[in-house]
Design goal:
The protein is mainly α and about 120 residues long. About 35% of the residues lie in helices and about 5% in strands. The chain binds a DNA duplex (13 and 13 nucleotides) through helix 2, helix 3 and strand 2.
DNA sequence: GATATGACATGTT
DNA sequence: CAACATGCCATAT
């Protein structure tokens, strides 16, 4: 099967310059495509969205998400396989429990990216 | 416009 | 493995 359920989005080639709002929308759309039980890094999500150097921007997008969002923000972790929140924070614990409830195991505060990271 | 700040990434020490 | 340095890019002041 060659049809990829999660195709990388090509950066717009049209003349219209893409606003950050446009990019944000693409990022959120790609985020919604991360399957249950899998994770991706901020950089992966940026790449999927067609903006490989925007890992930091992805973080700022997620930060602004409403608390009641249905999007799987918890499936996004950093390149070290760690949760990008202070260990003692409630946000950290929330993300951890959500991940484990999906079968993503964390050992020594780290996810095995070799196992759980999505394939680009 | 200059600086500082982030839910980042990667390479070097 | 940890600490540090650089690069990156949008936001806020």
């Amino acid at each position: 099967m060659n049809n990829n359920p999660n195709p990388p989005v090509t950066a717009p080639t049209s003349k219209k310059q893409s606003s950050t709002e446009d990019i944000r929308h693409i990022v959120l759309q790609q985020l919604s495509s991360i399957p249950i039980g899998k994770v991706c890094t901020y950089g992966d999500l940026a790449k999927l969205s067609g903006y490989p150097s925007h890992s930091r921007f992805v973080g700022s997008v997620l930060r602004k998400l409403p608390a009641d969002t249905k999007l799987p923000w918890h499936r996004v972790i950093n390149g070290q396989g760690r949760i990008s929140f202070p260990q003692d924070s409630t946000a950290y614990n929330k993300q951890l429990s959500r991940l484990e409830s999906e079968g993503v195991i964390m050992l020594n505060g780290r996810v095995d990216l070799k196992v759980y990271r999505i394939r680009l």
